[in-house]
Amino acid sequence: MASLADIQKLRKLTGAGMMDCKKALEEANGDIDAAVEIVRAKGQAIAAKRSDREASEGCVLCKAADGFGAMIALKCETDFVATNADFVKLTQDILDAAFAAKAKTLDEVKALKLGDRTIADAVTERSGITGEKMELDGYNTIEGVNITCYNHQNKNMLCTMVALNENAAPEVGKQLAMQIAAMNPISIDEKSVPAEVVENEMKVAIEKTKEEQVEKAVQNALKKAGFNLYIAESEEHIAEGIAKGNITEAQADEIRKIKKEVAEQKLANMPEQMVQSIANGRMAKFYKESCLLNQEYCMDATKTISQILKDASATLTVTAFKRFTLRAD
Fold first, then answer.
1. What does the alpha-carbon distance between residue 134 and residue 126 come to, in Å, rounded to a whole number?
2. Are 70 and 139 in contact (CB under 8 A)?
3. What is the C-alpha R_g of the chain?
4. Of 173, 220, 293, 326, which is least surrounded by CB within 10 A?
């Protein structure tokens, strides 16, 4: 029969539930070390069974000091586990270990020690205790003169870090960190947008411009021919129009003919300079919405982030930022 003192000791060592500790001690005939291994083996087995499940909940934490910042997410399956104090503490312990080691990659973090086992093993053990799949994700680091961390609403669901090139009032860093949380910029400025992103956005802008120009031409031609634009919008609407007696089969064919011929003609004769000009306008809007320094400040739309920085110091700017969320934006 396992004593209460031994059960509590095993629970402190493993974080397992009281009943799990009691059963492990009984199986190990009271040997604490053997019971620890039983608990860990059980955790590995349960984690393996849950490996194909989706871990969409979890805990995201970050910290910064002395020019270095780190952020990590420990994911699980349910909000019940995500808000459990032991789960949050494990996430904090992992972050503290990663921060102390100034680990650069997630693999480095997983190999670090928590007590007598690796962080990877500690996560597996916790998975066994809760019966949920768990995985580490979202490990980010940042370096800079002045780093601010922000945990959105202190809910451990969304964290940001921002580095400035010089010291500034704490509220400036917080304003920027909150902006990053709210507006999800992809880069600091236009120059730092990845080339492949710029290329893809330009392709989308050109394609959308052409589609809109074709659609305008087709609609004008259909109006001129006296057709209802709702009926002409799609094959489904055309079929509906025929079924209700609003158009004949011959009129349906005429609609299809106009749409096809006008679209082909418009595409073949579309001025390239006009398309490029409109696409450039779309890109300017993209940069305004996606580049941190270009964005309107979320708490005051009359100011951009660049203006917020200039108001604090003429030479103040952002050198890096990171953002991670457990929710789809």
1. 8
2. yes
3. 29
4. 220
Q: Are 299 and 181 in contact (CB under 8 A)?
A: no
Digit-coded pLDDT (tens) for 143-173: 999 999 999 999 999 999 999 999 999 999 9
Please state, as a whole number, how many other Cβ atoms lie within 10 Å of the Cβ of residue 5. 8
Q: Which residues of the chain have pLDDT under 70?
A: 1-2, 7, 10, 12-18, 36, 38-55, 329
**Bridge partner list, 310:** none
The three-class DSSP label of residue 2 is coil
List the alpha helices (DSSP H) in 29-70: 32-49
pLDDT of residue 148: 97
Nearest in space to 162 (alpha carbons), one of 318, 309, 288, 311: 318
- For the whole model, what pTM was predicted? 0.76
67 and 137 share one domain: yes
Interatomic CA distance for residues 11 and 48, integer angstroms: 22
Give residue 46's pLDDT.
47
Please tell me whether residues 120 and 176 are part of one structural domain: yes
39 and 76 both lie in a single domain: no
Say how many domains are in the chain. 3
What's the confidence (pLDDT) of residue 105?
Answer: 96
Q: At residue 148, what is the residue type?
A: T
DSSP helix/strand/coil, 225: coil
